[in-house]
Amino acid sequence: MTSRAVVFDLDGTLAVPNRDRRTLLAEAIETTDAPPVSRSEYLDAHGQVVAGETRTPIFERLLTDGDPSPDAVARAYREAVNDALEPVDGVETLLEDLTDGPGYRVGVLTDGPSLAQRSKLDRLGWTERFDATLVTGELETRKPDPAAFEAITDRLGVDPERAIYVGDDPERDVAGAAAAGLDAVQVLHDEGSEPHPDANAVVERDALETGLKTVLASCCQP
Belongs to which family (predicted)? Predict the structure, then answer.
């Protein structure tokens, strides 16, 4: 592999909430006095829409007349997630070294509504951290669509085969990046998770900083 750009997934790769998503969803539901919504129901609704700016279209599928407004619940959930979000250990140093050092263009490609994802970057202090940031809600598509990966490499000014994508989801991140012509580094964090056959390398999330630097030093010098 040779690369001139490193592109990251956000959720589950660079940052994680300090409470599980089921709990955060329940907190948002309780805060707004909405009827109970399970995590599986939320994910099912999420999979049926491409939410452009906010999660409101997701909650429109889950709430009925007489319930709190979908916009209010979406806002409460966004605030709960953002309040809980923390960078993975070592990520601040990793990003500083990559973005301040010579040779690499560094980007983020993240799934989700634009406001939700960009507010996470703002909360983390990463709004200006990357050379390019792309939220799939701004594209009306999502990973693993090759168009999403091609869009971020276009913004970074590199050919897909000159880029490496770092993410934790086997299908959306690893298989999606590979199908678009990028090299893929899979981030492992769930017990028993297996490397995807399309992964060019794997790193443990708990050792993302040192693990990715080792991968880049061995195969992907700019």
Answer: Belongs to the HAD-like hydrolase superfamily.
Amino acid in position 18: N
**134-188 per-position pLDDT tens digit:** 999 999 789 999 999 999 999 999 999 999 999 999 999 999 999 999 999 999 9
The dihedrals phi and psi of 123, each to the nearest 5 degrees, come to -65, -35
Q: Both tokens of residue 177? A: 């990046």
DSSP 3-state of 187: strand
How far apart (Å, rounded) are the C-alpha atoms in residues 188 and 193? 7
SS3 assignment, position 11: strand
The strand pairing partners of 134, in sequence order, are 109
Dihedral sign of CA atoms 212, 213, 219, 222 in order: positive
Question: What's the pLDDT tens digit per position in 30-87?
Answer: 999 999 999 999 999 988 877 688 999 999 999 998 999 999 999 999 999 999 999 9
Nearest-10 Cα torsion for 36, 33, 56, 43: -20
Which residues make beta-bridge pairs with 185? Answer: 166, 201
Residues 76 and 97 in one domain: no
Report helix, strand or coil for 1: coil
- Report the distance separating Cα 168 and Cα 187, nearest Å: 4
Per DSSP, which regions of 70-213 are E strands? 85-87, 105-110, 132-135, 163-167, 183-188, 201-204
Domain finish residue from 57, 84, 111? 84
